[in-house]
Amino acid sequence: MSEKFSVGQLLAGLPPPAADEHFECLHAAGGARIERIVSHGQSSPPGFWYAQDGDEGVAVVAGEASLEFADGRSLTMRAGDWVVLPAGSRHRVARTASPTVWLAVHLPRAEDDARPPRPQLPGGLQSPS
Amino acid sequence: MSEKFSVGQLLAGLPPPAADEHFECLHAAGGARIERIVSHGQSSPPGFWYAQDGDEGVAVVAGEASLEFADGRSLTMRAGDWVVLPAGSRHRVARTASPTVWLAVHLPRAEDDARPPRPQLPGGLQSPS
Question: Cβ contacts of residue A127 below 8 Å, gap of 6+?
Fold first, then answer.
């Protein structure tokens, strides 16, 4: 029997513009997940902040996008740009070109992680302590 | 205090050609690791096979490379192409353009992974069982 290799092309088979971003899991193992995200102009709702449980690494493969962070900083990303969003860090997508292709890696939360419990987040902007 | 976001550009700051490929860890957490690899024409030694302990996802960001697998298949990868190499699968890099930039994600070995123990690999070609 042959071993199974999954292959693909990040810029092929892009879904057409739709109301929501398109998420496709490329692989998951050991609590980690690799996904392709395709955006067509979507942005996070005003005042909404993502804050994922584990660290997340994101690279823009094509297109352009702007992220905003709860401390007031912003980041414009183009092809080849990457960012690591620490677990619990508050961020939102302010703008995306159509299409924007992302490669996202969701890392497992480290078992020996000494971070304090993450407080519940209100919907609005909140400065990190 | 601000939350810390690591940022970078995969195609910037490429190391010059050298004898060895250049590995840069972009982030590691929870047993997973994201790294940028820059190749300048390197290839695996003849008869040498990689077989990593956990699943590995690899995408070519720029350049071109050819992989070979122990079952005789080969794969030419260009920008945007990705492959998932299952834990223990035997593969080698047959060829890389100069430069070739890779984004590699090493995933943790799943705790509930039921794969049998991986046999020690001889240096030469070996067909998968």
Answer: A70, A71, A72
